[in-house]
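To assess whether the prediction recovers the assembly geometry, we first specified each molecular entity separately, as shown.
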Amino acid sequence: GAGVSQSPSNKVTEKGKDVELRCDPISGHTALYWYRQSLGQGLEFLIYFQGNSAPDKSGLPSDRFSAERTGGSVSTLTIQRTQQEDSAVYLCASSFDRGPDTQYFGPGTRLTVL
Amino acid sequence: AQSVTQLGSHVSVSEGALVLLRCNYSSSVPPYLFWYVQYPNQGLQLLLKYTSAATLVKGINGFEAEFKKSETSFHLTKPSAHMSDAAEYFCAVTHGGSQGNLIFGKGTKLSVKP
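The predicted structure of the complete assembly is given in tokenized form:
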């Protein structure tokens, strides 16, 4: 079956612009996660959705970052007023449920902020 | 708080040699432990996971890992390396409650020499 998909695969933007990153999870998966992978910080957890709800947003790096999930499916991560330190690969993962259920990762979106 | 330490950011082995990638964890509650592999420009793929059943876990591509509570370790091994095993490997921990987000180690890049 179809895995987790993310779009765009690559995004180059100018400092100060807003960007939207999209994640399509595996159908039927209730849990959805966003992670960021960068050279300096490794793999960092950003936010988790159970259904359409994000109980804890404390992993988001700043208030320029926001995320939503609609219909218990597609999720969008939005970064406003992008900064160069936002350059990273943004990975989305989904699992049937939270906790120890296997998380299946998408291929990621590589964001470059000039 | 949970954390993961992977000893050795780079490991190089000869084709046919034993692969040993080290992972130590810290967790105040019983952990669930994972090994993921990342090939260049791809997302993360699950190799294996420990969820409190058998302490010796077998995964895909001939990899296995042993959970040792007394040593707080979950080292990844493969008896005979193949060229196709060259990739970056990440150890991760979570627990059953809360959000279930993964906490990753910094990763170990495995090189396989012919």
